[in-house]
Structure formats: C-alpha cells, structure tokens
Amino acid sequence: xxxxxxxxxxxxxxxxxxxxxxxxxxxxxxxxxxxxxxxxxxxxxxxxxxxxxxxxxxxxxxxxxxxxxxxxxxxxxxxxxxxxxxxxxxxxxxxxxxxxxxxxxxxxxxxxxxxxxxxxxxxxxxxxxxxxxxxxxxxxxxxxxxxxxxxxxxxxxxxxxxxxxxxxxxxxxxxxxxxxxxxxxxxxxxxxxxxxxxxxxxxxxxxxxxxxxxxxxxxxxxxxxxxxxxxxxxxxxxxxxxxxxxxxxxxxxxxxxxxxxxxxxxxxxxxxxxxxxxxxx
Length: 281
Ligand code: GLN
Prior knowledge:
Layout: H1 3-13, H2 21-32, H3 38-43, H4 51-65, H5 70-74, E1 76-79, E2 82-85, H6 98-107, E3 113-117, H7 123-131, E4 136-141, H8 144-156, E5 163-167, E6 181-186, H9 201-204, H10 220-229, E7 233-242, H11 248-257, E8 261-267, E9 273-279
Helix pairs in contact: 1-2, 2-4
The protein binds glutamine.
Glutamine is lined by residues 94, 96, 187-191, 203, 212.
C-alpha cells in the first residue's frame, strides 16, 4: 500500500469518530514512520509502505477508531509552541486556552508569584513559567496524575526550578500559609453536568470527568474559587479564568459581586469570549 492509498482508506474509516480524520491519519502515520515531519508524507505520497510500518500504523489506528484521542495515543500535544507529555488522567491541552496565556504574558513581567488552580497537564503552569522567565508558579490539583505529569512537563521544558506542585482541593493546601500572589489563574471544570453525556466520545469516555464537570450550571468552580480568592491575592493582583463558550457574562458577574474591578473579557480565535479577568484594587 502506498502512503496515498493508506491515507485515503483510513481517513474514510475515521469519519464518524473524528472531525479531522485525515489529519489524524497523517499524525499517526508520521509516528509510525519514526516521527517524520508531515511534509515528508506529502513529498513521498506515492511511496510504498513496508509491512512493519503499516502494522505500527494500524495498531494506533485501531485505538483511534475506538475513540481514543490522538494526544493519548501519541502521548504528547503541542501548546503555546511547547511540547507537553499527556496521558489518560490529565485533560489534553486545547487551543482554547492559548488566549489566556497570551493575555497574561502581555500584562505581567518580572518576579511575579502565580498560583494555578487545576494543574491538568501543566499547560498553563509551564507555559506561564516559560514565557514569564522570572515568575514563580505554584500549581495545585486535587488528583495525583496531573501533579506527576505537570512535574514531568516542567522538567522537560526547563522551568522545574521555578514551579512547585502541590495536592490541593482548590486553595485547601495553602489555607493557613499566609501566601499571597500577583496572579490567580484557572481553567476549572466548566461543563454543565447535563451536557457531559452530549460531548464527543473522545472527550467523555477518555478525558477525566473531574476536569470537566462544573456542576449543575457549570459555574461551581468560578463561584468557589472567586469567593476564596481575595485572601490569596495581593492588592493590585489579578484573577484570570478561561470560561466556557457562553459563560463570560455570568463569570464577569461573579467577579463583580465579589468586589473585583476593571473586569474585562478576551476572545479566542473563533471570536468567542474565552478569558475573563478582574483586578483586586
Ligand atoms: N474546553 C474543554 C472542552 O470543552 C473543557 C475544559 C474545562 O471544563 N475546563 O472539552
């Protein structure tokens, strides 16, 4: 079978499970070929594939066909130009989160103290530490796996000396520490509980529900974190959230009713209000 034939055949097979079947096939094939560039695939489109390459490919293809996300099959995902190891038990980094990082690296500079609520893969923690090279980040998560994966990603991206991981249910681990921060950042679970069953199979059957379930109206964590946040924020500090596609207004209201000032939102690449920021003035 040639590369072209393989792409045609297997892309068709993924149409019901994936929004990007061809891209998925190309990503799996480039891994099977030993992590070649996708350009290589197109330069060699009529090349005959050896049997062992085809076998490597179909092994991964079968996992994808079952609904497993590409990032869990390959074990990594790019975010903010950095490479993140991912595995089941941590939410896969999404482009939806990049506008939050972009905004924060515009606002801040210097030796700031950051706390990230909900480590996940470490995407927010590690990219802030990387692009704010004098910052220090405390990264909190209730689950074990994110703390382990986050630490691995901090190490791999050369920021481990400025990042600390701690098991914590929101702020619980630092309750009596007296610690205060310049920035509290979070991409909390924000899917309405009712909506979880309607998510794509690759999300609801493979990604951690704990990282998705935001309670009845999806806003539980915004209310809880915001209510507690001021105790941990310096005067002039910032609270910054990623929010669900229709939550910017309600989350802004939550910030307002907790006394936050200069509240504003930022859009993602699809034009959706994705970031909500408030100041503790
Ligand atoms: N953006 C994720 C999704 O829709 C949800 C992440 C979250 O709940 N924070 O799949």
